[in-house]
Amino acid sequence: MTLKSAVRGEAPQLWLLLLLASISSSLWASVAARTGPSHDKVVVCYISTWAVYRPEQGAYAIDNFDPSLCTHVVYAFAGLDITQAAIKSLDPWQDLKEEYGKGGYEKLTGLKRSHPHLKVSLAIGGWNEGSANYSILVANDLLRGRFVKQVSTFIRKYGFDGLDLDWEYPTQRKGKPADRENFVLLTKELREEFDEHGLLLTSAIGASKKVIDEAYDVRQISRYLDYLHIMCYDYHGSWDQKVGYNAPLSAPADDPLSVKFSIDYLLKLGAPREKLVMGLPFYGRTFKTVAAGNLNDNSDGVGFQGPYTREDGFLGYNEICKTLSNQTSGWTRQWDPQTSQVLAKSERNIFTQEVHVVTYDSSRSIANKVLFAMSRRLAGVMVWSVDTDDFLGNCLLDEDTYEDFQKVTAAPRRLSQNYPLLRTINEATVLAVDELTVPELPPDDSENEIPHGSIADRKNAGATVLSLGLVSTAVFTLLHRMTQ
Ligand SMILES: *[C@@H]1O[C@H](CO)[C@@H](O)[C@H](O)[C@H]1NC(C)=O
Ligand SMILES: *[C@@H]1O[C@H](CO)[C@@H](O)[C@H](O)[C@H]1NC(C)=O
To answer: Where does the record locate the signal sequence feature (predicted)?
Structure first.
């Protein structure tokens, strides 16, 4: 008896067995392949790789990165060598393997072996690179052409999946008015080259109205970029010489300095929502004041530093939460509902008479912002940067994270205390689906007028998804029990 005849008639059980085996193996594959977040939004994680030089518990190496919490990771930053029209490493010892270097590029791209979901990009630019050399690059056809070829070879050499443009910003900071058009040409030519190799092209985008208006032809660059990473922070800081919120979710109607304004403005200018990625700061802005330390109090033009990040006017979330977790530090905090920001302040220093203030995003701020991003059906969110989350899990967890979610009665249980902000992003992305579900409208008779078949097809598709969902939930539960 041949196998063929057995399959045909004599042994129907074998049919069933084969079918079950193939279903379960494909289910197994799809479950096993899930090495990232359990939702289909993007979570873009920047690593400021110089964080490795921070002292003590502030030091962040690639080994500290948890690839299961992000869909995309961006290595920040590489630089521009304008004399060669080429991308270059800004820290060859950290980035490369040559001359006994630490090989950071390949360490990060190597994480794709254990976490196949992960996309790894290299960012070029950043605040310290300025704007002038980028302006020269994009203005010249020959330089642009050379750069496009070289950068494509460079990122593939180290196994990156893409390039993230972090020119801050076209037309600003010694840039030229022509940058706006020339930046479009750069993205267009990179897109043509990258399509040959299936590479990702993204860009960090300034969030202030002035920068958006002057620097970007939003419609055009949106054609060529895979994602726009909107830097929704630094709305206020010590440079204002008064206390303000770093990244207010919303502001009074006539104030363009808010996350909501930036996102809705970009949508209005024609940015496709499925390409918009909203930035979230894992840091706060700091102020020194002799006043009470309330919002809008006059402050020094230079904010105070933290022990790890050691940068005037800037404090990582890990530094903030450490101070606030200390019962004897004398710090107090206030939640602001309109902006979804926290203002925390010290006691007055008896010698200097100064009060230290920091405005920042807590877990609750992050959760509310994720909910907003999901309400606008954006591609997802971006994080600057994972190295200032409480990546060691030293702090107490916030208890008010989902305070503003109507349908959440208890916070999801966490298996780990570290990365509280990043975990909040992934939880909130899942919870937002339920939170934003509007009650179904009563059935409508006009249904009958819809061309034959379409409704039924959709309903069947729904049923298939549902039953597949049930099966995979069962398999998932089983796997979960097995691995406990
Ligand atoms: C721009 O390029 C020149 C020439 O290589 C270099 O000396 C200068 O430092 C660059 N500017 C910045 C801000 O990196
Ligand atoms: C807590 O704060 C107090 C007062 O600033 C300080 O002396 C102490 O060292 C801090 N404790 C920890 C564990 O950081």
So the answer is: 1-33
Query: Is 409 near ligand 2, meaning CB less than 6 Å away?
Result: no
Is 329's C-beta closer than 6 angstroms to any atom of ligand 2?
A: yes
What does pLDDT average to over the chain?
90
- pTM more than 0.90: no
Is the predicted pLDDT of residue 10 greater than 50, yes or no?
no
Q: What tens digit of pLDDT does each residue of 362-400 get? A: 999 999 999 999 999 999 999 999 999 999 999 999 999
Ligand 1 pocket test, pick from 89, 133, 147, 173 with the greatest ligand atom count within 8 Å of Cβ, gives 133
Distance 82 CA to ligand 1 centre (A): 7
Q: Which of 112, 97, 50, 98 is nearest to 75 (CA)?
A: 50
**What is the distance of C-alpha 94 from the center of its chain?**
23
Domains identified in the chain and CATH numbers? 33-281+362-435 (3.20.20.80)
Q: Please give the distance, rounded to the nearest whole angstrom, from the Cα atom of residue 129 to the centre of ligand 1.
A: 8
Q: Which residue carries 């496009």 as its tokens?
A: 148
Q: How far is residue 220's CA from residue 177's CA, in Å, rounded to a whole number? A: 16
Strands 227-231 and 162-166: unpaired
Measure the CA–CA gap between 236 and 259, rounded to whole angstroms.
12
